[in-house]
Design a protein that fits this description.
By secondary structure, the chain is of the alpha+beta class. The chain has 4 helices and 2 strands; from the N terminus they run αααββα. The longest helix is centred in the middle third of the chain and has 10 residues. The radius of gyration is 13 Å and the shape is globular. The two termini are 17 Å apart.
Amino acid sequence: MRSLVPDVVDRDYSKTPLTRAEAERIASSTKDLRDLLNTRHKQVKASGWLENAPATSTLVEALLEDANVLRRPLVLRGSRGLVSRDEAEIRSFLEGA
């Protein structure tokens, strides 16, 4: 992703857990929280979150316990978030289109 925009901050939350502020920012970055969910994660499946999105506060708590609830890669720009592996889509998002 650094090749797309040089000032991108690469945040590896598997090595350093998310802070509450980061989890809240992520949870508020999309209108439908299901867009953020890792569809293969056992908690996501068991909780039925793919059918009925969790409350924002519930997702924040889940992210603090296990950030792998999130799909990856997740790109944040301002108050918006995008989950995508498509380079053109990420570039467009980061450029503000």
